[in-house]
Every structure is written in structure tokens, then in C-alpha cells.
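Objective 1b. Sequence-to-structure analysis of Flavin reductase like domain-containing protein.
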Amino acid sequence: MDTGAKFDWTEPVYNFRRRGTFIVSTSDGQKSHMHNGCWISPMSHKPPRIGIAMAKEMEGAAIVERSRRIGLSLLADDQHDLLIRFLQGAHTPEQLGVDEIVYGENTGVPLWAKAVAHFECWLDESVDLGDFYWLIGRTVTAKVNREVPDLLVNDIGPVNRVKMPFRGYVDVRPLPPYPGSE
């Protein structure tokens, strides 16, 4: 999701896709950021890689460039109300509920605790595509947390009072080092 989507004449066609709802997250040891993801796709099996589209206007884009770490939380259908609160401005663990956020063991990024699944990635490459970056992440964690239905974007319904662009929060936890930087 980005603020320019309403101007894209192809958006109505994209909206016919059936896809799971992801929260994309990152952290740099000073600030963490989360937002709902729009395009996420497996890119490679050997090594495992995921491609993630991230709008440049998201403050998380600059954090990813600095920290080279990305997290993905595949939301469960029973997290609909929590997602709506998030979209309406509850962007911090305190606002969401401190038990709703956990931190990745390999990258330290915030992840939604009760998500169906989590991925943690180290950024291998960032491709500038105009309004978006295409981030290619090397997957270091892929974990199923719960075997429940995921929340499909198509089933979220209209959301009033969406707060865009998403803002991060101060987060000065020590993070695991980027591989090879020790």
C-alpha cells in the first residue's frame, strides 16, 4: 500500500488477485518500522530469497537500506481487528499490545507474534523502480507459528481513517550483527 495507488489506472486489475496479508518490518537499532506489504514473492530456492516491493515514501525504505534487515509476518484471519487498528494508526508495540510483537532471533526485526508465519531476511539487493524499491532478501528464518487460515487482502474490506504513510517508533534494542560485519 502506498499513497499513489489511487492514481494507478492498473490498480483495479491488481485488486482481483487473491493474496495473503503481510506486515513488512525492519529495524536499525535506533528505529523500527512496520507497514502492510503489497507485493511479496518467492524469488529463488537455492539460496532461498524473497522479493518485496517497498514504496520509497515509507520511512522503512531508508531503514532497510541502512540496516539490511527485513521481516515478514503473514497475518492470520483472526488478526483482522488488530490489522484495522494498525492501519488506523496503532503503529507501536504499546499501541498494538506488547504481547502482539516479538523480535526475530536472526535479524532483530519486529514480527507479529500471532501471525501464521514469519520470515526474516538479510537484504541482498535493492533495485530502484521509480516509486518503489524491489528488495531481494536472503531468507534466514522461515517459520510456521500457527496452522490457521491466513488473512486475505481481498477479505479485509473497506477501512476508514487509514493513517499514511506509516511511521516507525523509537527502538534502541541491540540487534544481531549483519553477517560478516563482526
